Amino acid sequence: MPILIEMPKLSDTMTEGTLVQWLKKVGDTIETGDVIAEIETDKATMSMESFDDGILHAIYVQAGEKVPLGARLGLLLEEDEEPPAEGAVIESTAPAAAPAEESAAPTASAAPPAAPVAAVTDGARVKASPLARRIAADKGINLSQITGTGPGGRIVKKDVLNAKPGAAPAAAVASVPSAQVIRPVMGEGDVRIPLTGMRTIIAERLLASKTQIPHFYLNIEVDAAPLMAFRKQANQAAEKNDKANKYTVNDFILKAVINSAVAVPDVNASFDGDSIVKFASVNASVAIAVDDGLVTPVIRDAQDKSLLEISVAVKDLAVRARSKKLSPNEFSGGTLTVSNLGAFGVDSFDAIINPPQAFIIAVSSIRKVPVVGPNDQIVPGLRMGIGMSCDHRVIDGAIGAQYLSELRRLIENPALMLL
Amino acid sequence: MAYDLIVIGGGPAGYVGAIRAAQLGKKVACVEMDRAGGTCLNWGCLPTKSLLKNAELYHLLKHKADEFGLSFDNLSYDWGKVIGRSRKVSDRLAGGIEFLFRKANVDYFNGEASLLAPNKVSVKDADGNVAEYDADKILVSTGCVSRPFPGFPFNGTTVIGSKEAMVLAEQPKEMVIIGAGAIGVEFAYFFNAFGTKVTIVEMMPNILPVEDEEVSQTVQKSFIKDGIRVLTNTKVTGTQETAAGVEITVEGESTEVLKADVALIAIGVQPVLPKGMELETDRGYLVTNDQYQTSSPGIYAAGDIIGPPWLAHVASWEAIQCVEGLFTDHQPKKVEVFPGCTYCQPQVASVGLTERAAKEQGIAYKVGHFPFQASGKAQAVGESTGFVKLLFGEEYGEVIGAHIVGSEATEMIAELGLAITLEATKDDLEATIHAHPTLSEAVHEAASQAYGHAIHIPN
């Protein structure tokens, strides 16, 4: 029987994928598990494995083409199998609203997540009452996108009735911005570059964030001298031993940001319609610039990690981000983000919140500036600017200020963050 | 001495709230002017269940011994021991609450509390000594007492409320009970079982007027068969104390004067407000917001004192909601779905909507019905009166109401309370294997009957 190869769903937010490169050509024999192509999703470039054995009979999508989930990529035939007649329609193996299979293999679904789909659970267990399940199935509401208000966070009737059919997560609500903005006029020599998956997701998420989240901004300037001295001490070991870890300024700032979120837990939260979700763990998203964009992979359970563990984790994430080797689950679940432009010499900036998080920390460069010393004399000092952008629905000014005050205390007394 | 929480009243709201707060690591005191356990343990739920067990047993032996092949001579009873057993049960349980307080490190003060300020309570003990205590938060759970009949005040002997009725030194020969709610109906069953001539008077068309009409009718039929005189649609228009007892004039199908040794007034309850600060009330009950806070910040209230339904299990639940709201990040909920039980025989238990309420709210529903007559277990134990009646939402089949009348109805209702809380549908009830032989199989069959596939009765 002919088997269609379709665009698989490789991440939660993926709605389409770009076929970067075929690794097999027509006529090749393929076994289950063989890597047959590279696919670029909204988040990463990933290998696509075959789920079946056969011979690659046809290729429908060429390298560089972007197609929606479930689209036909190629066709496998069994050995000695007659190819289907020209023009014959081969049924897609994945029905539009098929529940995600429990197997580890990524499954294809022709329905983009924003469209109304049957009340499937997307594989994860959803706590919902039998009545809520029935109503959701009836109205075509996806339970995985609803927050429950029943006992233990269970989704109950009321929650489903309050949800809109086909409701999608906030990030996916915004349409591609190019449809709304004032379009540029192109002249001679101008170049049009189609958005990559990553640029599309950046556009969607940040437009949604800046338009839907009531941002406010707090700024502080901290004394960076103790931190620089402390870092120098910590890195002395690395000078003698190539294998010892070398700490960056950012490692210390991350550690301070994480510890402060533990000290002021109200900031480690998300706005969710009719409630605020407070997170038990601090999952730190780290903004990493990559070719043609940026990614924000997550250091999970960061509150339990030592400075060394954080430093090692960031280095690993950065290397793999730049080589597009991060897996989709490494991007999800962040509860706060740190964006550090200090290395680029930026004096001061405010960042856009990475939804659905409630705040983002913007770290600027460390500058040598004249400061007023203890006896009112002007002396040289080291200063670093830190900005905090807050979702006012979750974080009020006083809480944000309290958070920054704790952050300042740790950065200016770096030994405290190791206690 | 400063407390995180002082609870005024040691009943089902107060003692439960106090212990829960102590479990959450708070420094808690509970002030009770009578005895720990409140009306429920001392003068309500529990001592009456003790009396009703005596009544059931006596009724069974007297009327059904032959059916079970038992015979004996001179079956008699000792009224003093009947009452005495009930008091012993109360004594033991009240002592149990004090033990629980000690285990939970709740300070227990026996005395009368007074609200001096939103964070200050005074306690006057039996000797008149007054002590003052500071509290960050105060929970008022002072409860209710029997409501007197207008113009016919309680006198402790011939015009009485439920509290006196459960400790009458002598059994009355004739009794008129005004009001056929749960309390009136339970006492009617109790006194009648021991041979008192009982007349129960109800203004509404049915006894147990808040229950499903079919349920009320079933109990009414059983009462009449047992010899209780049931006057429904009947108003009390005159009351008088006489040398022999009381004379009550009633107007129903006809006007007549009922003579009895004792009139038991069971027309409801009235609130017992705490002394001291005045808090906002509505019809006498403390007004509370969604967090159970009264009109004074820092002062909270739960239980009977915040109004209907006046039920011990609701009071305890409210107190826990309130206390968890105060000391954890829990969002308190107000009561919506709760079971109601009446412990006469046959027993009555219900949860959720009655057909009447569903109609009033314009909810489309389906009814499932299963009589205990068709239950093997009911036949085996000789208790085939009554039925299970379930209401399901028409569109999705969720359980919206359950009404049981029968010998063990009150022990069977929990399943259906859970079903409503979990928003279970008829499929879930049907998918659950109910043990055989039990009376609870009737729940399963009633669910099936609603959808035309009950096995043991025509659909």
Question: Describe it for me?
Answer:
The complex is a heterodimer of chains A (419) and B (459). With 419 residues, chain A is an alpha+beta fold. Chain A has helices spanning 130-139, 157-162, 170-173, 197-212, 225-240, 249-263, 307-322, 397-412; strands at 3-6, 16-22, 29-30, 35-40, 45-49, 54-59, 66-68, 72-77, 215-223, 269-272, 275-278, 284-286, 288-290, 293-295, 298-299, 336-340, 359-372, 378-391. Chain A folds into three domains: 1-109, RNA polymerase II/Efflux pump adaptor protein, barrel-sandwich hybrid domain (OB fold (Dihydrolipoamide Acetyltransferase, E2P), Beta Barrel), CATH 2.40.50; 115-167, Irregular (Dihydrolipoamide Transferase), CATH 4.10.320.10; 213-418, Chloramphenicol acetyltransferase-like domain (Chloramphenicol Acetyltransferase, 2-Layer Sandwich), CATH 3.30.559.10. Chain A starts with a strand and ends in a 7-residue tail after the last helix. In chain A, 35% of the residues are buried. With 459 residues, chain B is of the alpha/beta class. Chain B is 32% helix and 27% strand. The radius of gyration of chain B is 23 Å and the shape is globular. Classes of the chains: A alpha+beta (419), B alpha/beta (459). The interface between A and B is medium-sized, with 13 and 12 residues.
Short description, anyone?
Chain A is an alpha+beta fold and 419 residues long.
Question: Could you list some keywords that capture this structure?
Answer:
heterodimer; A: 419 residues; alpha+beta; Dihydrolipoamide Transferase; Chloramphenicol Acetyltransferase; six-stranded mixed β-sheet; 24% helix; B: 459 residues; alpha/beta; FAD/NAD(P)-binding domain; Enolase-like, domain 1; eight-stranded mixed β-sheet; five-stranded parallel β-sheet; 32% helix
